[in-house]
Write a structure and sequence with these properties.
Mean pLDDT: 80
Order of helices and strands: EEEEEEEEEEEEEEEE
Distance between the termini: 31 Å
Helix content: under 10%
Number of strands: 16
Low-confidence stretches: 187-191
Radius of gyration: 16 Å
Number of helices: 0
Length: about 190
Amino acid sequence: VNQCIGFDKWNGHHYLYVPVRGKMFYAYDLDTRQKIGQAYTGINSPRGCMVASDHRVYVCGDQALFRYDPAQNKGEILGFTPELDENGMKGVVWCMDVDQEDNLYMGASQDGSVYKYNTKTGAVTHSPRLVEGVAIISGVRCHKGFVYASGHSGTESGTLYKLDAETLKPVDSLVMETPNGIVENIPYISI
């Protein structure tokens, strides 16, 4: 199991969603301790799992985005792929968060961008390239109209970016002062 699972409560039950290496996804009812669903995700290395307000579950990783609808017990691979970098290499989705309007924000490697996926319309937009070189956006969090993204170029220095959640344009950037300078995950903000 990779480091991403999702939790939800609806229809009077608590649910656990587990995407696993090997392109599979499992749904469990924690109250009855039963597996209630499974699906093929097409994602070999899941990196993020988020539950939207409509209880649909999104999983990102590799070059794909997967959606599971627990009401239908059905999963589907969505038509999202990060853009190619200047060398024609495909990007990989590394992380994900969801805002209060159910927009997904995903950080990608290769092109060093943050992608916004509108779960209601399927529209995809992305930020300008934030990191030069072998670029990785390794963490994203949404908070009060902003997206915070941590990025690095595989070196010992990293940067935390603050983006406008609507336009994905950078508002500010701060150089991180951590022992190795790279922020892999951004904790949830509850201020």
